[in-house]
């Protein structure tokens, strides 16, 4: 089994197009984050330009992704030190790519431009890219990786052929995690599957973060409430006093997954669950830019879950 599950149909469409007389010049690789779209883009680009197997960079494959945050971080990169990434793909990067398009491909007659993720293009960068998509140079092909296609300009989407990458079913996810994470306990794997929403990459990240105990406490709150706030305290302890941003993001994703799994068991009015889910979506959206206090965030998540439990009890009464 391979971590790149669910790519069969995408490969079939891509290779059929390569064998056709007029291959479309721009492709949108769409699906949840963690489905291997970036890996597909790199492999497909290498096939397109005729690169030999291996990991060596190819001069006719250009990838635009998040660069250093500023000049200070760029110097760290140049010195081989860890550096902080920018939150967006900037217009200067697109302009640099367009300068490359004024020259012919180096080793053949085709060139691939990968933008990963295209969702994070600055507005000006997206407008600049649109000009290249409208008048692509001969032999140039664009692969735009996107986790949220709706964030792209409609004019960009309309110029691309879409390859959709499906979410992975729970049984395949369980087999994959069993193969790739043999040392993880079952509760951690179950928590990862619940949080990942069909994304193998996300599930593997969640296993590494060891969310089994967090998931267990969340389910306890949903099932029996938390009248004395003790479970909310346990939730805060399982999250940790000083979790990093990745762990907090994973906890929020897990809470949404636990709620979604509860939907079928809800009796009567589902408004409490819907409200809780909306609030978790809001918190998740804010997490990349807000500095949350871990304890307060745990209390807020626990209160939302306890509210759903209380609503379920009233419906069953």
UniProtKB/TrEMBL annotation:
Residues 67-79 have a biased composition (Basic and acidic residues). InterPro entries: DNA_Rep/Repair_Clamp_Loader (IPR050238), P-loop_NTPase (IPR027417). Gene3D superfamilies: P-loop containing nucleotide triphosphate hydrolases (3.40.50.300). One of its GO terms (cellular component) is DNA polymerase III complex. GO terms for biological process: DNA-templated DNA replication. Residues 50-79 are annotated as: Disordered. This is AAA family ATPase. It comes from Qipengyuania marisflavi.
């Amino acid at each position: 089994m391979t971590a790149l599950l669910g790519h069969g149909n995408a490969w079939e469409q891509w290779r059929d197009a390569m064998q056709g007389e007029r291959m479309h010049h721009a492709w949108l690789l769409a699906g949840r984050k963690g489905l291997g779209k970036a890996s597909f883009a790199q492999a497909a680009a290498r096939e397109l330009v005729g690169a030999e197997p291996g990991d060596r960079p190819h001069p006719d494959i250009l990838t635009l992704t998040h660069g250093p945050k500023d000049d200070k971080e760029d110097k760290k990169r140049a010195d081989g030190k860890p550096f902080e990434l920018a939150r967006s793909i900037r217009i200067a990067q697109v302009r640099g790519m367009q300068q490359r398009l004024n020259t012919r491909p180096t080793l053949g007659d085709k060139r691939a431009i990968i933008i990963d993720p295209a969702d994070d293009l600055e507005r000006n960068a997206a407008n600049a890219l649109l000009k290249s998509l409208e008048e692509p140079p001969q032999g140039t092909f664009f692969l735009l990786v996107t986790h949220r296609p709706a964030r792209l300009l409609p004019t960009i989407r309309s110029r691309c052929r879409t390859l959709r990458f499906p979410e992975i079913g729970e049984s395949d996810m369980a087999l994959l995690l069993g193969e790739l994470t043999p040392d993880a306990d079952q509760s951690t794997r179950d928590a990862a599957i619940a949080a990942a929403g069909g994304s193998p990459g996300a599930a593997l990240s969640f296993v590494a973060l060891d969310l089994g105990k967090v998931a267990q406490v969340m389910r306890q709150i949903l099932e029996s409430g938390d009248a004395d706030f003790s479970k909310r305290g346990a939730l805060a302890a399982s999250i940790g006093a000083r979790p990093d941003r990745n762990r907090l993001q994973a906890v929020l994703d897990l809470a949404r997954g636990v709620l979604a799994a509860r939907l079928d068991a809800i009796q009567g009015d589902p408004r409490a669950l819907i409200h809780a889910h909306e609030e978790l979506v809001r918190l998740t959206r804010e997490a990349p830019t807000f500095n949350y206090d871990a304890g307060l965030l745990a209390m807020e998540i626990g209160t939302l879950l306890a509210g759903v439990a209380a609503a379920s009890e009233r419906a069953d009464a």
